[in-house]
Request: fold
Amino acid sequence: MKNFYCVFVIVTISLLLCNTSEAQYKIGYFSESKTLQLFPESKKADSLLQQFTQDSIGVEYERRANKLRITDSLYKKDCKTALPGKTCEEALNDLDQQRNILANWLKIGQQMVDAKRAQLYYPLKQQMYEALKEIIAEEKYTTVLTVEALSIYFTPPLLDNLSIRVAMKLHLPLSKQIEAMWKAAEAKAAKPLVVPAKKKTK
Reply:
């Protein structure tokens, strides 16, 4: 579902920028995750996310678990004084709610991590998709697919790898191997296509 959404968003951008009735049909492919990894700032974002997971999610779980232990102990001694201002029934409902939160903490914690990840990567994604939008317009791509949508039996043209084009546009570091392969692909594409002459028939 997530991959489908990414495909839909990118294809929508490409269709808005390109007039398919006039432009030649041109397909590019793009990987959000691989492009994000090329940003030097992504390492800092990963480190902050890991720290948030350990310090915030883990500490919050321990705080809630400790609160539940104390409240449960007080409730067993005297339900009327376990939670000031609450009846025994209200105190029991509060305990049940605390237990449900801890029981579902893995899901809740993941939601918190996802929200933090979105916050940390928002500036990088903003730069990345702005560059992608410009490339789609400049190179007149009519459709952009995610890498996951491509067949494993098909090797697409390197020059249509929009992750590499975005990296170049934003001056992100690329490996020497990728740079060499890109230059070779550009040189090959620049050569005119030679059509062999037909043999004369007697």
In short: Residues 147 and 154 are 11 Å apart (CA to CA). Residues 14-23 have pLDDT under 50 and may be disordered.
